[in-house]
Amino acid sequence: MFEILKDKDxxxxxxxxFRVLEKLGMICENKEMLKAVxxxxxxxxxxxxxxxxxxxIVENFISTxxxxxxxxxxxxxxxxxxxTVLSGWTPYVECPATFKAPYVPSLFHQLGTFYYDDExxxxxxGCKDDFIKLIKFGDVLHPEDGVGHCLNLxxxxxxxxxxxxAGLLIEYAHKPMGVYVQDMxxxxxxxxxxxxxxxxDPYWHWLANISFATxxxxxxxxxxxxxxxxxxxxxxxxxYTMAVSGVNMPVTTAGCIVVTTAEFIALWxxxxxxNPKIPLTGFILTGSMDMRSGEVNYWGYDMLIxxxxxxxxxxxxxxxAVSPGIGEFCQAKYPGLYATLEKAYLAMTVAAFTGFHPxxxxxxxxxxxxxxxxxxxxxxxxxxxxxxxxSPVIDEENIALETILDVGxxxxxxxxxxxxxxxxxxxxxxxxxxxxxxxxxxxxxxxxMKKINEKINQLISEYKKPEVDPDKISKIRQVIEKARRxxx
Length: 488
Hints:
globular; 46% helix; four-stranded mixed beta sheet; TIM Barrel; alpha/beta; MttB-like_sf; transferase; Trimethylamine methyltransferase; single chain; methyltransferase; 18 helices; MTTB_MeTrfase
């Protein structure tokens, strides 16, 4: 894989990280977390809610983590947290590694803010009706994967939004896969709903990666969630950043490396202070500011160098592999081949610099803001196509030696009329449903979207609502109403 940093770069970057953690530290609005880091040697000002980390404390932490066998972490990281997009997990394998295609995306926890109506070609804030349509679609498209909390509901108060989403999933999905927890006050109500629905999955109330409000500020709601995440023993210490270079992070690549690394180490130290055995993961989704338009870009080369070099530096400093993201956060405003190939380009660039191919996409456009069913179908098709890059089967049937000798020089026949081709062409050749392998023409995009919309309508028409005990739905509604009275 490609490398970016030179050996001489490591010392000044490391010193920058040590200085930031020692002089600035972090703001944290959670007394339990402040107490935990104080116990490992941090200097804590409880009145200002600031923890500073002396250099020796940081060096000891880095030294300890670097010696750990990271391969054993994989045994401790469970379920969906092994998907890069959901935790930043990157397998600890030596390059050159055998290529492994990423998983095929499903409607799990994309949590888009907007819903793109592919037929009307318009974007709108997500609502309950749109979420129900997503549930029906996913229920038919990938029944084995189930459906999770993949859309924000703008017509519901944020205080109870995960509870409303939980009720809809249990009512409409044959395999409901859980919801995002935004506020820890929602947790007891969610657990009550899970008990009513007889759900045993500890990840049904899902906790996403944690991030500072860059630079180095951790608000109460986020820090409360991180404390629970770290102590639960269900999750790795999964962190992330979506800071924007030139806005809430230095405009230079080197400055970004220092601030991001300081943030990751500070959060990991907090997690280890609360749970000494917790594995460490994370992903970096740094953006950059277009100073001419004011637009934030999560796709360009200037953004990529920040992500990739920070991941490389963190790995060399601590031994921890974090992900520079997946192909998902593209600039495209509309679903289609352009958006899909934009994502694929980003994912392949990440693979070239990390040795690990991340997911191409999970159905978003507009830098992760908007979920599109058409885009999900295209992203799934590309991810499935990547399986053809995995190691081929080498055996007697696939070598086809007798057929090779029989065809000979191809004077009287070719491989098209052989029994071997007839037996194997379905498994040996990529046959995409939507990508036109004959080449892209001027009108091909319009034809493609028409075909995809027909497929979406066909799948939704095949949906059949699960038979759920009405008494369960009634009890769940009562829990939601109780939460509405108490939380709003």
